[in-house]
């Protein structure tokens, strides 16, 4: 089985070799400060006795799992702490496929590229359900695509790359479809703290044994390098997920889990409110400049990405390389996210140089 190097790495590598200053709008790495309690937790951990530097429980520190469970209204035994949301999604997809209920994974188009890659790695087959122009997913289209071969339906809200936020009726309908076909709805909610619409609904609101919710502290606490995520499994999948997690990773970082737990307990809501306010300002600044440049664009209702379409400039890898060389702005080619957005380029608003990037793009396309 052959795997392609993800386009993210190819773009980042190309930008790093550029002969000019390049504004990085490729990766979803928040540029703002983590909660102060993260640093406090790390400092405190350094003073712990030596046994605290050994393996933690494989499924995660009990106190962290307990805190997550309390906040999410679930049983602690259903929570598995993972190496970021990436592993959480891998575990969820693997558990869905190993039930011998078919090998099809239903994905959206556009799609976060790692979902198709994981599907291939796990021996599943991919099918895609188109979203509308705003990134919204029609449950009727999902139902029409589902079959007895459907093992899982994978969705992401708030969405990367479109910024769509699925309303409650969509989420509950998707859970119902999963139940109808004995499939697993996998709801990746890693951007839940960046809901700008007020309409976000977690799949946990639907009480069901046919849904898995994945998340991480990577984005919400601006600690992508800590690799602390989690998945909430229904009882019938939790034991299998824990076994696979142990075989693949053994466990996640103990100090990072401790710091995340400290931040969960000590961080006020104002921290998250401030980051959303900053993001709203950046969305307005960037989209205003795109409009002045005559570009089409998406206005995100959540997450921190804007997709832009420039006339007669499709979102190919070659054109993204040209933007790096000639405009000094690095984005992601739309073709990385599926056929429906191949004409677009995705930009991550996680840089204080958003206004400068917009000005460079406007000058390039004038």
Automatic annotation (TrEMBL):
| Cofactors demanded by this protein | pyridoxal 5'-phosphate
Q: Which residues form a coiled coil?
A: none
**Source organism, top-level taxon:** Archaea
Q: Which UniProt keywords apply?
A: Aminotransferase, Pyridoxal phosphate, Transferase
Q: Which Gene3D superfamilies match?
A: Type I PLP-dependent aspartate aminotransferase-like (Major domain)
Q: Residue limits of the Aminotransferase class I/classII large domain? A: 21-352
Molecular-function annotations in GO: pyridoxal phosphate binding; transaminase activity
For biological process, the GO terms are: amino acid metabolic process
Q: Where is the signal peptide?
A: none
For this chain, the family text in UniProt reads: Belongs to the class-I pyridoxal-phosphate-dependent aminotransferase family.
Subunit note: Homodimer.
This protein's name: Pyridoxal phosphate-dependent aminotransferase
């Amino acid at each position: 089985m052959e795997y392609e190097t993800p386009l993210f790495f190819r773009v980042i590598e190309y930008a790093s070799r550029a002969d000019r200053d390049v504004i990085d709008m490729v990766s979803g790495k928040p540029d703002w400060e983590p909660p102060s309690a993260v640093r406090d937790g790390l400092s405190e951990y350094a003073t712990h006795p030596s046994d605290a530097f050994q393996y933690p429980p494989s499924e995660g520190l009990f106190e962290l799992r307990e805190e997550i469970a309390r906040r999410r209204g679930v049983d602690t035994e259903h929570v598995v702490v993972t190496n970021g949301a990436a592993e959480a999604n891998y575990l969820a997809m693997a558990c869905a496929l190993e039930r011998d209920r078919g090998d099809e994974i239903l994905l959206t188009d556009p799609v976060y590229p790692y979902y198709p890659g994981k599907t291939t790695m796990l021996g599943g087959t991919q099918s895609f359900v188109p979203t509308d122009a705003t990134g919204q997913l029609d449950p009727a289209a999902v139902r029409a695509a589902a079959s007895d071969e459907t093992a899982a339906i994978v969705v992401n809200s708030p969405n990367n790359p479109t910024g769509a936020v699925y309303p409650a009726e969509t989420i509950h309908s998707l859970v119902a479809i999963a139940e109808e076909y004995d499939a697993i709805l996998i709801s990746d909610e890693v951007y839940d703290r960046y809901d700008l619409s007020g309409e976000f609904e977690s799949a946990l609101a639907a009480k069901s044994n046919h849904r898995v919710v994945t998340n991480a502290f990577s984005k919400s606490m601006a600690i992508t390098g800590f690799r602390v995520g989690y998945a909430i499994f229904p009882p019938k999948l939790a034991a299998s997920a824990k076994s696979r997690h142990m075989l693949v990773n053994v466990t996640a970082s103990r100090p990072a889990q401790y710091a995340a737990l400290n931040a969960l307990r000590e961080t006020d809501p104002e921290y998250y409110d401030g980051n959303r306010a900053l993001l709203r300002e950046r969305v307005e600044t960037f989209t205003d400049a795109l409009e002045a440049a005559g570009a089409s664009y998406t206005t995100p209702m959540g997450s921190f990405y804007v997709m832009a379409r420039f006339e007669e400039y499709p979102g190919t890898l070659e054109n993204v390389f040209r933007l790096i060389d000639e405009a000094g702005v690095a984005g992601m080619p739309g073709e990385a996210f599926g056929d429906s957005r191949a004409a677009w380029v995705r930009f991550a608003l996680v840089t204080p140089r958003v206004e400068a990037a917009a000005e460079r793009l406007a000058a390039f396309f004038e």
